[in-house]
Amino acid sequence: VDEEQGSQLAAAAASRGARLPVHVKVDTGMGRLGMRWTDAYEVICRLAGRPGIEIAGLCSHFAKVEPADDRQAREQAERFCSLARRLEAGLGKKLFKHMSSSRAFLYRREWDLDGVRPGIALYGYGTGEGWARARTRPILSWKARVIQVKRLPAGHPVGYYGTYRTRRETEIAVIAAGYADGYLRMLSNRGAVLIHGRRCPVVGRVSMNWITVEVGPRSGVRRGDVAVLIGWQGDEQIWADELAALCRTIPYEILTGIDARLERRYLDSGGEARADRTAASSTVKHAGSAD
Fold it and tell me: Which residues pair with 140 in a beta bridge?
């Protein structure tokens, strides 16, 4: 990402009699990681002359990709491609060039270069707009178990500080998941889960380890039933972009916020394989799917 790090890598590799191939990160306008494009040519040429390091690739990252206003993205791409041409001429070799994240990959084919780095699109998000050149479907579902079902009279408070009161005699299901697992408190009295293929509203505050949902009178819901926090059940679906809108955030934060303690199960056409982490009664499933 800068000359100091490159020099340290070169020295460490040379001391072991090795030659380390690296991709250099160039800041073309984002102001985050990498050496500024204005200085990159001289710095990279100096690094290329050091024993122990081989300049194999060049990369950057778009700060903003908006089809309605792509001026900043085009400017970054032009800076990057201009630098790449100059470096390939100066070093006398072809470099592996990559710049596009999900949004750039979906929007502009000419920015594919030698490789792309899709992220959220691989999880099935951000591909629904008309200009997207590929379509993917969400692949991650999050499920938890109902721990208790209780009948409450009309006007009964639910959860910390009684932020919700039942409007009629009804049943409340307590689900084994909470904000410690990554189900955000912003979903208190806003979110919903799927039980028996029906949307059931989150009522009261989301607790550290528990979510309370109203399932209605004579719901038939029982302890041990599966509640879907993200995913589909029957004809109903709830996905991370819906939760993100309710929390005024982005799907990335919802998905990366799911706690690592939860059991993961990876599904493919051959069945399902259990992973190595288990917590409470919450399960996260990943299943590949793309159009």
Answer: 286
The percent of the chain in helix, strand and coil, each rounded to the nearest 5, is 30, 30, 40
DSSP state of 279: B
**Length of the chain, please?**
291
What does each of the 291 residues of the chain score in pLDDT, given as a tens digit? Answer: 899 999 999 999 999 999 999 999 999 999 999 999 999 999 999 999 999 999 999 999 999 998 889 999 999 999 999 999 999 999 999 999 999 999 999 999 999 999 999 999 999 998 888 888 889 999 899 999 999 999 999 999 999 999 999 999 999 999 999 999 999 999 999 999 999 999 999 999 999 999 999 999 999 999 999 999 999 999 999 999 999 999 999 999 999 999 999 999 998 766 656 555 544 456 766 654 333
Domains and CATH numbers, the chain: 3-118 (3.20.20.10), 140-287 (2.40.37.10)
Tokens 């299943």 -> residue:
287
CA distances to 157, 165, 206, 215 from 153, rounded to whole Å, are 10, 10, 21, 14
Beta bridge partners of 20: 53
**209 pairs with which residues across the strands?**
none
In this prediction the pTM is: 0.84
DSSP 112-171: -TTB----GGGGT-S--STT-S--B---EEEEEEEEEEEEE-TT-EESGGG-EE-SSSEE
Backbone angles phi and psi of 157, in degrees to 5: -70, 150
